[in-house]
Amino acid sequence: MEIRQLEALNAVVTSGSVTAAGRLLGRSQPVISRQVSDLEAELGFVLFERTRPTITLTEPGVQFYQDVRSILADLQQLESHVMGLRSGEIRPLRILATADLAHGLLPTALALVDRFNAVFPQKLILEEAVYEVTARSVLERRADFALINLPIDVDGLQVHWCGQAPCQLAMPASHPLTRQSMIHLEDIHNTDVITLLGRYRMRFQLINSLVQLTSRDKRRHIEVASQQTALSMVRAGLGVALIDPFSVHPHSAADIVLRPIATDIPYRIGVVSPVNHILTEGATRLIRGLYTHVRSTIPQFLDTDVNGLQAQTINPLTNLKQA
């Protein structure tokens, strides 16, 4: 299996035809066809359904192409890194974060930490994960560290700190329940409820908690992909939403009232990195700063282990690797 064959496969998929792939790579159409055919012969299965005028990946072809795309992305990243080494460029700080945390907690904490002690000298790369972050995705994406929701399989990962805080109920400013300082779920009655799609294990637990505790009520149920969308719908008066305290940005919460819930529904987050990865000094400072920011700004934050067990006697910052 050769890189040129994988490049030919990628070019055919992205351009939509063998002819266009040849133009993209600067190779002739017969060369592209032969490289794809040789790759299929080596793999032992067909990659494309050749039905004119288009060609479509077969089911095994789709699965194989996902791996190929990851490999080519790694090679491109490696080439970029080598060019940086040649020019003396300092290694960028790379962070992987779930989308809600990337929009909520991370920007404010990053600005505060960087203001007093620069954490990235030249370049910061922030990659958002729309769905659940797994140990494999942290390892594959080559991030210095990941700010994620829990739980997570920690095989191959070092947990720098983790903890939890209770969820809150987001309501339009005009909602009658805003007069109460504490919300009981039975107070919701027939109010429409907005929850997050159950693509995350933690999100699934939150949805079950809310739906089960209000199952006897007659109301509509709206599911959305992100907390930012949920807050927008709350602002528009479409219902109330269960919101984790880590993902609410001050600007996104305008015209919205947040109230604590009498029923404790915890939400857990943490910072992890690959076990064998040596953190830069800037990454270490940022991880410490994130923890300090969470401890000082998130109501009722409690240190835990990755399983949600209290870890009050453990300093979650003692395991940080220095550069």
Explain what you see.
By secondary structure, the protein is an alpha/beta fold. It folds into three domains: 3-87, Arc Repressor Mutant, subunit A (Orthogonal Bundle); 93-164 and 267-303, D-Maltodextrin-Binding Protein, domain 2 (3-Layer(aba) Sandwich); 168-264, D-Maltodextrin-Binding Protein, domain 2, CATH 3.40.190.10. Helix content is 39%, strand content 21%. The chain contains ten helices and 13 strands. Strands 4-3-5-12-6-13 form a six-stranded mixed beta sheet. A five-stranded mixed beta sheet has the order 9-8-10-7-11, with helices on both faces. β1 (48-51) and β2 (54-57) form a beta hairpin. α1 (3-15) crosses α3. Residues 312-316 have low confidence and may be disordered.
Produce the secondary structure layout.
Elements: H1 3-15, H2 18-25, H3 29-43, E1 48-51, E2 54-57, H4 59-87, E3 93-98, H5 99-103, H6 105-116, E4 124-129, H7 135-140, E5 145-149, E6 157-166, E7 168-172, E8 193-196, H8 201-213, E9 221-224, H9 227-235, E10 240-243, E11 256-260, E12 266-274, H10 281-297, E13 302-303
Parallel strand pairs: 3-4, 3-5, 8-9, 8-10
Antiparallel strand pairs: 1-2, 5-12, 6-12, 6-13, 7-10, 7-11
Helix pairs in contact: 1-2, 1-3, 1-4, 2-3, 6-10
Features:
D-Maltodextrin-Binding Protein, domain 2, 3 domains, six-stranded mixed beta sheet, alpha/beta, about 325 residues, Arc Repressor Mutant, subunit A, globular, five-stranded mixed beta sheet
- Mean pLDDT metric: 81
> What is the C-alpha radius of gyration, as a whole number of Å?
24 Å
**Into which percentage range does the β-strand content fall?**
15-25%
Strand arrangement, major sheet: 4-3-5-12-6-13
CATH architecture of the largest domain: 3-Layer(aba) Sandwich
CATH topology of the largest domain: D-Maltodextrin-Binding Protein, domain 2
Share in helix: 25-40%
Q: Gap between N and C termini, in Å?
A: 37 Å
The biggest beta sheet reads: 6 strands, mixed
The tally of beta strands, per DSSP, is 13
Helix-strand topology string: HHHEEHEHHEHEEEEHEHEEEHE
Low-confidence stretches: 312-316
The CATH top-level class label of the largest domain: Alpha Beta
- Category by helix and strand content: alpha/beta
Q: Sum up the overall morphology in one term.
A: globular
CATH superfamily caption of the largest domain: Periplasmic binding protein-like II
Number of helices: 10
